[in-house]
Amino acid sequence: MNNGAYPGSDNEPPDNCAAGFIPGPLDPLRYDGQVLDPDEVTGIFASLISAGDRVLDVGCGTGSITKILADTCKIEIIGIEPDPTRVARAVSRGLKVHTGRLNSELIQTMGMFDLVLFADVLEHLPNPQSMLLTAREVLRPHGSVIVSVPNVAHWSVRVDVMRGRFQYQPTGIMDATHLRWFTRETLLSFVSSAGFEITDYAGSAGILVPEIETRWPFRWMPVDLRRRFLHSASLRWPTLFACQHVVRAEMK
After folding, report:
1. Measuring CA to CA, which residue among 13, 25, 26 is closest to residue 125?
2. DSSP conformation letters of the chain
3. In 3D, which of 213, 202, 217, 201 has the Cα closest to residue 172?
4. Which domains does the chain show, CATH number per domain?
């Protein structure tokens, strides 16, 4: 959801493959402008990263999240991004970014990392498990991955499906470039299948998702009340209210 990146295949990037699902072309910078909020995915990432870690941000997009984590967590972080427009924006933020996709040749030039971050990337890949397996090549012993994916079982999607709607959007859970769909249990099982042990889980509240402001009953709620409700609901019922599922998992 955040990056719209496509780091793991030689096929055409999904930004070029959404024709017919949404009107007009997609803006490659549409996920720029992330903020540090403890209830949202960037804040969750920050809580799961240790100071001094060497981090690889795969599919870093415009570097919006990458820059926040670099400044907040006091880490060395390097990005990989295939889209040149997004790379240019990330470099303008003072970030070190490799143009391309994560593969064995690139790994040989970068050295080893304590953590590999996939911030809303794997849902864009036809074979996301191969990307997790490739990440193992760049991780130090007991290294970890952090993965976030949109929650296809979010209440808003359930309501729409009950109404017979499955409508793609330029951004968000229903981003027209998503090729894979995850629930909480699907994500936990999927990450474990690549030889990782889950150590942490959290769900983002989705407070900043523009669509929430148009949905009943939230469009009538004061902002503070909406925040408190979604924060509490995403903690208590993450399978229903979490906008994104986030896991940290250690290499076995």
Report:
1. 13
2. --S----S-SSPPGGGS-BTTBSSPPPTTTT------TTSHHHHHHHH--TT-EEEEET-TTSHHHHHHHHHHT-EEEEEES-HHHHHHHHHTT-EEEES---HHHHHHH--EEEEEEES-GGG-SSHHHHHHHHHTTEEEEEEEEEEEEBTT-HHHHHHHHTT----BSSSTTBTT----B-HHHHHHHHHHTTEEEEEEEE---TT-GGGGGSTTGGGS-HHHHHHHHHHHHHH-HHHH-SEEEEEEEE-
3. 213
4. 14-251 (3.40.50.150)
How many angstroms separate the Cα of 187 from the Cα of each of 11, 107, 220, 221?
Answer: 24, 25, 33, 32
- Each of the 252 residues of the chain gets a pLDDT tens digit; together they read 544 444 444 456 778 888 899 988 999 999 998 989 999 999 999 999 999 999 999 999 999 999 999 999 999 999 999 999 999 999 999 999 999 999 888 888 899 999 999 999 999 999 999 999 999 999 999 999 999 999 999 999 999 999 999 999 999 999 999 999 999 999 999 999 999 999 999 999 988 777 777 787 877 888 888 888 899 999 999 999 999 999 999 998
d(CA 164, CA 109): 49
Chain centroid to CA 202: how far?
13
